[in-house]
Amino acid sequence: MRSQSGPIDAEGIWRKVHASAARGGAALFLDRDGVVVQETDYLSRIENLALVPGAAAVIATANRRGVPVVLVTNQSGIGRGYFGWAEFAAVQRAMSSRLESQGARIDAVYACPHHAAGVGEYAVAHHPARKPAPGMLLRAAADLDLNLRQSWLVGDKRSDIEAAKRAGLAGAMHVLTGYGEVERAESAQLAEAGFEIRFGRSIADAVTLPILASG
């Protein structure tokens, strides 16, 4: 089932670090669908790809400040057999091209296909890399020498926020795009001492996060 279309590691996780990736210090972690790109449910076709307004500007701000930008995305559509890594790779290339045309670069991408309803080797209910587990964030920390305690995540689902909390991040911003409106209340319940949750309308509001805001 596993193709050779992308950099798939031994656990079946897409794990790709940009050749010019920023390294060290605090990172900005981003969910993809519903945060960086419009939610379409199982995005696999380039013609359905649309950036969320403000995404490129936020990413470009992080780039200018030397803050690594890391995409961490659950991709159960691959696990369920709806599409393959080749389609995922094509969408990623198109997304990266559109971001780069606006001066923005994602430093690393991690994608987990595993799901309880997956097929074959991807039929794993609670894979340690699938959000809300923190595995993808921990991989990124090791690959890019990140300081997780100062890092932040932007997500639209409770699973995004929980993954940030379990990885030991400083906090997360929950946005209303994607599934954000239906998942805000549950996401808000994850706040506690040592883990801050902020709320935004979209990724555009992430410019106010401590790692991006002007001092």
What does this structure look like?
This protein has helices spanning 55-64, 76-79, 85-100, 135-144, 158-167, 180-188, and strands at residues 14-17, 28-30, 69-74, 108-112, 152-155, 171-175, 196-200. The chain is of the alpha/beta class. The chain has one domain (14-208): HAD superfamily/HAD-like (Rossmann fold, 3-Layer(aba) Sandwich). Strands 1-4-3-2-5-6-7 form a 7-stranded mixed β-sheet. Helix 5 packs parallel to helix 6. It starts with 13 loop residues before the first strand and ends in a 15-residue tail after the last strand.
Provide a quick synopsis of the model.
With 215 residues, this protein is an alpha/beta fold.
CATH class designation: Alpha Beta
**What is the CATH T-level topology?**
Rossmann fold
The largest sheet has its strands arranged as: 1-4-3-2-5-6-7
**N- and C-termini, Cα separation:** 49 Å
Taken in chain order, the helices and strands follow as EEHEHHEHEHEHE
Protein traits:
seven-stranded mixed sheet; Rossmann fold; globular; alpha/beta; 6 helices; 215 residues
Map the helices and strands.
Layout: E1 14-17, E2 28-30, H1 55-64, E3 69-74, H2 76-79, H3 85-100, E4 108-112, H4 135-144, E5 152-155, H5 158-167, E6 171-175, H6 180-188, E7 196-200
Parallel strand pairs: 2-3, 2-5, 3-4, 5-6, 6-7
Antiparallel strand pairs: 1-4
